[in-house]
Amino acid sequence: MERKEVSGGKVTSTRKHVCCQSGGRLVSFVSYPDKYYVIEDASGGTFYLPGSNQYYTDRSGTFSGKDNLLNIFLSRAVFDMGLGQFGYTLKSTETDPEGYLIRTFVTDKAGDTPVVELVFKDYLPVCMIYKSADGTLRGKVYLSDYRTVKRFVFPHRTTEVMYPNPKDSVVTRTIYSNLTVDEDDELFDFSVPPDARPVKMNKR
């Protein structure tokens, strides 16, 4: 998987190998620009740095395998894209003149995007639109290049455009390749070495 982010005129690239297991467990090996492992499940994430043999565990809810795109499609939660687990409920469903199905989800929880519109074409999500309570556009995520990978259909390209403020935008493109399902991969069995040293992440 390759991820490129453009923000403030700067481009940041990340390459990683991701394995998704039933139950929402994800194991990732990031190979560029730095090398480290990430283990995510429903309760949080653990980061392991092989160079220093150190690890950090976050149970704050910031990192969770359950909202990862791979896990959402594997668990067939595409009709709400995992929004239900974060307190969103379906408000309305409509079909526009071009044949796109639009499902609008809302939440009472505090946050910048209490309204999310999911746009479907031929029963597959092609766009997620995030809005503030007053209708201001906060971001869009486009899903494309759908391909069948054994037992599920998955978008191999996503383009995310987020607006942290009216004058700025952050564009992130993710391309998935070499997806394997129900096959052996040594990454599935990865765990933090028992002699690794725990560290605390610096708070900004």
Architecture overview:
- There is one protein chain.
- The longest helix has 6 residues, at 69-74.
- The mean pLDDT is 88.
- It is globular and about 60 Å long.
- It is mainly β and 204 residues long.
- Helix content is 3%, strand content 52%.
- The protein has one helix and 14 strands.
- A 14-stranded mixed β-sheet has the order 7-8-9-10-11-12-13-1-2-3-4-5-6-14.
- A hairpin with a 5-residue loop joins β2 and β3.
Secondary-structure map:
Blueprint: E1 2-7, E2 10-20, E3 26-32, E4 36-41, E5 44-49, E6 54-58, H1 69-74, E7 89-95, E8 101-106, E9 115-121, E10 124-131, E11 137-149, E12 152-165, E13 168-175, E14 197-198
Parallel strand pairs: 6-14
Antiparallel strand pairs: 1-2, 1-13, 2-3, 3-4, 4-5, 5-6, 7-8, 8-9, 9-10, 10-11, 11-12, 12-13
